[in-house]
């Protein structure tokens, strides 16, 4: 993709307005917290302290809107307290020697860039703290005042955290939505299997539900009963659905058995949708009588036999467990010892440091991002002071806020920030000229602007920036700064900051396109380990660890998501495909998805522990593991992988084991051939 087209497409993406589920009560609570700290600051300490506390409360509320499963009060406290420390430290360094503030800004910016190794939520909070610190260090005039401002900033975060605790809105709502989305995705999958027996399934909703299921010890004791166990059942339902529908291991493609399978799949979709609705809203499960009747008699031996009959009975039992689990007040009790526990914030610190150290290597995208952020922030600080404008901090602040580790988000956010700033500043200026607001009315307008930003935050970055810009104009106006002292400066310096951010990425990029082959190879190797782990269960039903299959499956899913995210980022980059065209990437991705599906079909029919080992399964597992490992190396080295070992072993295989094993193993080889065909020049 050319630079012109990449810039055009990403600019459009940045200005796009998306339909999203709004949370007005949550936004109202956040705006109320902001109003409380502004009013207290104005009444007790004056406009300067009120502005500091407002920034603390504002950023603490923004932190609670991030996509994180950690408790919202913790996010608010973390944002407010870290911003207070940053502000106080920045003032101490800057007041002692103005020349020392630039090195301190470089250190803070570099650390904020590295924190992205811990995830986007931590990265966004750290970037926001650096950006707001540039403003708040200019407000106090002495060390005691700086301490007071830092205390007010921390108080803003504490107020937001207290409001979340005292006035909870839709408790466990994010976890409910994640679990309900997973069940609804499986319901859609069941219906698609009626018409396309080999339809694909994106495991992303199941992975998101798994992330949401990790809780703190305190949360584990308070989690609603309907959030226990349903995710694990959903994981077990998916392979049963696929094995029931696939003609290779399930019912024939046509005939009475296929008609019965379609009825079962339709009933399964109805049950899963009903369970998803009940979990999402905390309501009783309402199941239509026809679907219930189908599940009460799933077997019908005169229609289904063999593997399809076993899958039908297994599906009915699992769906019955899903309904029992999804019923509110079902009597299920929480056992913190069995929950997936999330580390506390103190325990998280060494884990974050470990992730950061892992990124301190040449070629790391996170390290490159940290270097770019540091360079852009320092350059913006110097340019801002060199230009004949006031409020020089707006240039580095814009750079820090728009920069992300990938090109697409950085450029789209830079365009959206400038466009939103133009509209927001223009609207706020018109209001100021017409109303001539005083200190208290300016504070009220700032709260209203922030409240609208909270409501519309998830509809697009450009929309949120409209109200953020208006919020800043009104907040500074509260302190007596006239609009004509802020508007021209903010527009010009926001443009400077965006340009510096893009220059930093153009001069020191971290393109995803050249790494696509590595991501594809990682997915291939992970899928191979998953398939080999499943085959190992057939080789030794009594001694094999079931946990090995689960661990390999999670690794394969992580590799698949990493590939999909990398492919999405690469599509917007202004670089050539470097040997992996879009068609090759799509073909190889489809083949690897089919490989994972073949392994899942094998997993759906794992033998009981009292069964005899399947002859040849151990040799096939070893051949698949070795072949996919060698194939991954070939993909990285831009060679076409070969599967001769698997092909020869499968051709000579005369195992008397269940036919489902032979058929699924043949599908594995077909999928591997699909990878080679897609990568062939």
From TrEMBL:
Pfam families: FUSC-like, FUSC_2. Residues 83-191 form the Integral membrane protein YccS N-terminal domain. It comes from the Bacteria. The chain crosses the membrane at residues 31-62, 74-94, 100-117, 149-169, 370-394, 414-432, 439-456, 462-479, 491-511. Residues 381-503 form the Integral membrane bound transporter domain. Its main location: membrane. Keywords: Membrane, Transmembrane, Transmembrane helix. It is a multi-pass membrane protein. It is found in: Membrane. InterPro entries: Memb_transporter_dom, YccS_N. The keyword Transmembrane helix applies. The keyword Transmembrane applies. This is FUSC family protein. It comes from Streptomyces katrae.
């Amino acid at each position: 993709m050319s630079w012109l087209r990449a810039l055009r497409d990403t600019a459009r993406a940045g200005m796009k307005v998306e339909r999203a589920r709004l949370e007005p009560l949550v936004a109202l609570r956040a705006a109320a917290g902001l109003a409380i700290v502004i009013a207290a600051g104005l009444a007790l300490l004056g406009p300067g302290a009120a502005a500091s506390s407002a920034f603390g409360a504002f950023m603490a509320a923004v932190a609670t809107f991030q996509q994180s499963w950690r408790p919202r009060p913790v996010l608010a406290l973390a944002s407010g307290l870290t911003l207070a420390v940053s502000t106080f430290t920045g003032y101490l360094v800057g007041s002692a020697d103005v020349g020392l503030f630039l090195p301190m800004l470089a250190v803070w910016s570099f650390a904020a860039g590295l924190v992205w190794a811990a995830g986007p939520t931590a990265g966004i909070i750290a970037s926001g703290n650096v950006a707001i610190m540039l403003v708040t260090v200019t407000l106090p005039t002495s060390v005691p005042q700086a301490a007071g401002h830092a205390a007010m900033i921390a108080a803003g975060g504490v107020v937001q955290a207290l409001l979340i605790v005292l006035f909870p809105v839709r408790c466990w709502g994010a976890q409910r939505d994640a679990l309900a989305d997973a069940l609804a995705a499986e319901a859609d999958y069941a219906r698609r299997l009626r018409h396309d027996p080999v339809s694909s399934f994106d495991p992303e909703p199941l992975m998101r539900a798994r992330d949401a299921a990790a809780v703190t010890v305190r949360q584990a004791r308070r989690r609603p009963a309907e959030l226990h166990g349903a995710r694990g059942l959903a994981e077990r339902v998916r392979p049963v659905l696929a094995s029931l529908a696939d003609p290779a291991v399930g019912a024939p493609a046509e005939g009475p058995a296929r008609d019965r399978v379609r009825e079962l799949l339709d009933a399964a979709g109805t049950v899963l949708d009903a369970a998803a609705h009940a979990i999402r809203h905390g309501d009783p499960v309402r199941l239509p009588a026809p679907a219930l009747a189908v599940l009460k008699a799933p077997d019908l031996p005169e229609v289904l036999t063999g593997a399809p009959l076993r899958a039908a009975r297994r599906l009915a039992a699992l769906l019955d467990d899903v309904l029992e689990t999804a019923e509110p007040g079902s009597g299920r009790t929480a056992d913190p010892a069995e929950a997936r526990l999330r580390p506390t914030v103190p325990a998280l610190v060494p884990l974050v440091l470990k992730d950061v150290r892992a990124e301190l290597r040449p070629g790391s995208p996170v390290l490159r991002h940290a270097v770019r952020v540091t360079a852009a922030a320092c350059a913006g600080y110097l340019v801002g002071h060199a230009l004949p404008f006031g409020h020089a901090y707006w240039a580095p602040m814009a750079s820090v806020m728009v920069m992300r580790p990938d090109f697409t988000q950085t450029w789209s956010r830079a365009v959206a920030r400038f466009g939103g700033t133009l509209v927001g500043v223009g609207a706020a200026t018109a209001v100021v000229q017409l109303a001539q607001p005083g200190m208290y009315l300016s504070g009220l307008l700032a709260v209203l602007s922030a409240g609208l930003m909270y409501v519309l935050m998830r509809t697009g970055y450009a929309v949120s920036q409209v109200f953020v810009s208006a919020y800043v104009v009104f907040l500074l106006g509260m302190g007596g700064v006239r609009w004509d002292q802020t508007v021209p400066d903010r527009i010009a310096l926001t443009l400077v900051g965006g340009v510096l951010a893009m220059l930093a990425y153009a001069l020191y990029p971290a393109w995803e396109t050249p790494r696509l082959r590595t991501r594809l190879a990682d997915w291939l190797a992970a899928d191979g380990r998953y398939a080999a782990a499943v085959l190992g269960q057939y080789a030794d039903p009594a001694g094999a660890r079931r946990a090995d299959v689960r661990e390999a499956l999670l690794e394969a899913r992580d590799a698949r998501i990493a590939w999909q995210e990398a492919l999405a980022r690469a599509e917007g980059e202004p670089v050539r495909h470097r040997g992996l065209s879009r068609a090759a990437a799509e073909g190889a991705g489809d083949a690897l998805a089919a490989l994972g599906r073949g392994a899942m079909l094998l997993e759906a029919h794992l033998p009981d522990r009292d069964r005899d080992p399947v002859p040849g399964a151990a040799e096939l597992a070893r051949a698949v593991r070795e072949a996919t490992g060698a194939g991954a190396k070939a993909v990285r080295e831009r060679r076409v992988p070969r599967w001769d070992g698997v092909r020869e072993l499968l051709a000579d295989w005369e195992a008397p084991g269940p036919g489902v094993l032979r058929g699924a193993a043949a599908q594995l080889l077909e999928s591997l051939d699909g990878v080679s065909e897609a990568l062939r020049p």
